[in-house]
Write a structure and sequence with these properties.
The chain has one domain. Helices cover 76% and strands 0% of the residues. Helix 1 packs across helix 10, helix 5 runs antiparallel to helix 6 and helix 5 packs across helix 7. The longest helix is centred in the first third of the chain and has 27 residues. The chain starts with 5 loop residues before the first helix and ends in a 5-residue tail after the last helix.
């Protein structure tokens, strides 16, 4: 286990968050291009923007929505290490928070199906972020190398994550019954796979 002093933990937290935001920006650029985006695009992957997004543009809303589950999971993993909380405790807090969102939704945008799929993604991410935060290193590449050791093991996690994300998108499409969302979701999934694959290969390129 690496050094998890408060100062190092904060550095690691920020590096992981920066990495995830960089991913979200890359996906947003691939999907949005230079055209106005629809309400459907702003909703993916279903965060009630009027409650949680404090951004100034539709593109930033889109990025924040992509990061919704990542932010919740990263904060939970951070609390597990910094405060010594168990995984059940932090997951329970997230369930309460998403439950509040569900209870507040009067527009039929959020649903229990979406929430349950998000929770599965979040549980997977909590374990991943805990692994990174406890690994040696203070930059994302080093933490990932030390946490996963090989490209194969890291890619296996990414495959699990992308499958969990797809389940969230499917639940979202069923909830809003939007046929126009299929093309967007396809673009998002392809962009996600492309960006993550390239970055994973770059991280492990020096490991024989």
């Amino acid at each position: 286990m690496g050094n998890t002093s408060p100062s190092n933990l904060n550095v690691k937290y920020k590096k992981i968050l920066s990495h995830e935001r960089s991913w979200a920006i890359s996906v947003a650029r691939s999907v949005i291009k230079q055209r106005p985006i629809s309400v459907w695009e702003v909703m993916i992957p279903i965060l009630l923007v009027f409650l949680y997004a404090k951004s100034r543009t539709d593109k930033e809303n889109f990025i924040q929505n992509l990061l919704f589950t990542k932010n919740l999971a990263l904060e939970a993993a951070f609390d597990m290490i910094e405060k010594g909380l168990g995984k059940e405790k932090v997951i329970s807090k997230i369930k309460d928070k998403t439950g509040d969102i569900l209870a507040s939704d009067t527009k039929g945008v959020y649903s229990q199906k979406i929430r349950l799929k998000q929770m599965k993604e979040i549980e997977l991410l909590v374990g991943h972020y805990q692994r990174l935060l406890e690994a040696e290193g203070q930059d994302y590449d080093t933490m990932t190398k030390n946490a996963y050791q090989t490209l194969g093991k890291y890619t296996a996690f990414l495959d699990q994550l992308e499958q969990a994300e797809k389940e969230v998108y499917k639940a979202a499409q069923k909830t809003v019954k939007a046929t126009t969302g299929s093309d967007l979701v396809s673009k998002m999934e392809k962009a996600t796979e492309r960006v993550r694959k390239a970055r994973a290969e770059k991280i492990f390129e020096t490991i024989k």
